[in-house]
## 1
Amino acid sequence: MHTRHRRNHRSVAIRAASLAGAALLLLPLAACVKKASTAQPTATPTTTTDVSPGDTGPSPVPRSSIYAFAGTKAFGVGEAGKVLYQATSGTWSEPQWTQKGRYAAAVSRTLNAKDARLAVIDSQTGKVINIRCGCGSVALVGDSIAVWADEKGQLFQLDITSAGVARKLNVSLPQGTPRLAAAGTNDTFLLIASDAPDGDNGKGAAYSVKLDGSKTLVRDLPEVSTLQFAAARAGGGEGARWAYQVIESQGDCAHPGPILVVDDAGAATTPDVTDLLGGKTAEEVDVAVLSAWWEPDGRLFAVMQSWICDPSGGTPVVKASLWRLDGGKWLAVEQPALRLEHDLAADTKIVLTDDDKLTLETSSGSTPIAADVLSVVLPPVVP
C-alpha cells in the first residue's frame, strides 16, 4: 500500500495550479512534478511598465464588480462581464490583491526559475508592471507593497506606486532560509522558510513578517518542500488570520501536509477532512487546497480535492470542488459542475466551471469571459 509519506511515487494527482499565493506549480492529474531549477536570478530585479488594455476601460459600475483571474494563458483583471486588462504568456499563480483592491499581482512561472516574472496590474489605469523576480509567489502588503523571495532566498520589496527598483528586505530567521512570501494583509505577510536547498525538503518554519523585518513564528515545520496555498485576512486584533498548507515531501510525487488555520491570537487548528477521504484513512489519501478565501462575514471557503497516489498516476477520490469550514470540519458545498463562484454587485456572480471556463451569470443569462482559467480572486476590501 502506498502511503502519503513515501517518496518513490512517480506522479502527482493534483488538478489545478496557482493557489492563493501558492508557490508550487501544480500540474494536471497524473502529471509528474519536476524539481525546480537551481538557476539564479539577478540580485536586484528591475522593472518595466506598459499598458495592456483588454476589451474596454473601467465603466461606472460599482467597484465590487472587479475581480482578478489567472490560468494557463493569461492573468487579467475583469469588471462584471468584461476583461479590462491582462498580461498574457505563461501559466500564472493565483492572483493577489492589495488591501484596498487597486492592484492585483501574479507570478508567471517558467521551466527556468530565473525567468519567472511578476506582473502587477493597476485596475484603475491599466498600467502593467513587469518584474523578472525569479520567484514562485508574491505577497501584497497594505495598499501598494509587493514582497517576494528569489531563488537565493533573498527577500525583496517594491513600492508599486513608484514602479522603481526593488529593495532588499532583510529578515533574520533562526530557522531556515526564506523561500516563499505569500498572503499579505495590512502590514504583514506569511513567509515560508526551509533549511534545505530550493526544491528539496527539510526542516523549516512559517513566519508572520512585517515590512521592518520583524517577525513572529507561526509554526515550526518538521518537513517542508514548498508552499501549497496560503490565504490571509486582517485580524480583529493586531495580528492576522492565516490559512495555509505546505508540500511536505516532493520526490517523484508531491504530498501535502495538514491544512492549518491560524487565528489572530496565534492559535492554530487542523480542520477535519474526513469527507474528502472517501472512507479511507488520512495515510492513504492526499488532500490539497487549490484556493481559499474568507468571505466578508468571516466564513472560510476553499476549492479542494483528494487522491490516492500510486505508480500508475494517481486515483482521484474527490474532484476539485467547493468546500466551507464549519465548526472545525470541511463540508462540501453542493454545486454540480462548478469549481467556484463569487457574488458580485447587482445580483450577478462570477462562475468558474469544471472545464476551466469563466462566465458571468445574471438573471438574463450567461456571458463567457475567459477560458483556461484556474483561479478567480476578488479584492479583500471594496474601495
Note: The domain at 47-377 is CATH 2.130.10 (Methylamine Dehydrogenase; Chain H).
## 2
Amino acid sequence: MGKHRKNPDRAQSHYSVGYGKPPLETRFKKGESRRGGSRKAGKSLAEEINELLREKVLVTEGGVQRRLSKRTAILKTMIAKAAKGDLRAADFLFRQASGAENAQVSDEAEMLTAEDLEMLADYLRRQERHESGEEVPASPVEPSDGA
C-alpha cells in the first residue's frame, strides 16, 4: 500500500494541497498574475499641455470647415487679434517669436569661435610641415593658465 493507508479515497484524488501547491480554487487563473508593479509616473504639466494642444478641432475659415490642432487654432486667433490692433496679442506673438529666435541663436553659439578656428588652422599647418619632413617649430599660441 501507499502513503494513504488510513484514507484510501484520498489516495485516489488527483491533486494534493501542500507546500507550493495551493488549493485549485485559490490559484491564479490563466492570464492573471495580480502583479501590479509600481504606478506609472504622472505626466508633467508641460506634457499635459502639449497633449491637449495636439488635439484636433473643427475650425471654419472662409466658409470651409477644417481640422486643425488647438495650437494652430490659437495661433491663428492671436494673429487675427494682433492684426486688428490688440496690443496684448501682438506682444504675445512677438515674445514667442523672439523666444524661438533666441533658441536658434543659442544653438549657433555652440559653433567655433575665431580663436578656435585659428588654433585649428595652426594645427593643420604644423601637420602639413610634419608630413612633408620639415622641422616643425613650436606653436606660437601659448597655453593658458586656466586650470
Note: The helical segments are 8-12, 45-54, 70-83, 87-109, 114-132.
## 3
Amino acid sequence: MITRRQDACIEISSTMAVADLARTVVDTAERSFGRWGIEYLGPDGTRLWFGVHRLGLGRKRETVMRFIVTVDADFDGAQARSQIEQFVCNPASGTFVPIGPRQLRGYPTYLAYLRAIRTAVLDADPGAHVTMVPEVRT
C-alpha cells in the first residue's frame, strides 16, 4: 500500500556545480530537527542515503525512515530529487479514538529537511527552480 505521504519529494534544478549541490544537501542534514535527527549514511553512485531517527536514544537509536537524494549533472548545472525508500508506520489509533490513517514515523522531520534544503539552495542560487510535493509553505 502506497500512501500519498510516501510520495513526498523535492526536485531541484540549479546552475550550481554537482559537487556544490551535493555538499548543500549533506550539510543541511547535519542539523537537528526538534527531537529528531537526519543522519547522512553515505553515497551510492549519484545517490546520497539518509536516515531519520530520534535523538537521545544512544546506541539503541532506531532509524524510522531512509531516503535518497539523487544529485547529478543537468544540461546547465545540477539537478537533485529526493525519494523515500524505507519507512515505518505508526499503527492507526483505535481504542477510544476513531481509527485514523497510519502516519509515517519521522515524516514531519523529513518535510522540515526538505524545507531546509529549499532555503539553502535558494540562498546559494536564487535562480534555482525548486519544487516540493506536496507543496509546503514556509
Note: The chain has two helices and nine strands.
## 4
Amino acid sequence: MPPGPPLALRLRPPARGAATEVTGPDGLLATADLGRRTPYGPVWALQQDLVRLRQAGRIDDVFLLLEHEPVYTLGRHGRPDNVLWDEGRRRQEG
C-alpha cells in the first residue's frame, strides 16, 4: 500500500470546558480530529508514531477522531487464501 502524504498533527490539550475535554484519573486527554477522510496508510503510520512517542514518555494519551478509506484486513492469523479475490482483482481494487 503506498504510504500517501504524511499527516501533520498538532497535539494540544483541549480548552477547559470545551466539548472535546475528557478527564480521567490521569487528567486531560488530548484529542485530535483529523476532520477528513484519510487514506489508511498515513493514518496507520501516524498511529505508530504516536505509540512510539507515548512509550518514550514524550506525549500523553491521545484520542484520534478520524475516518479512513475502507480496507480489508486479515488480522494476525489471516492467510492469503482467506481472501476470495484473485491477485488481479486485488490489484484492480487497490
Note: Residues 23-93 form one domain.
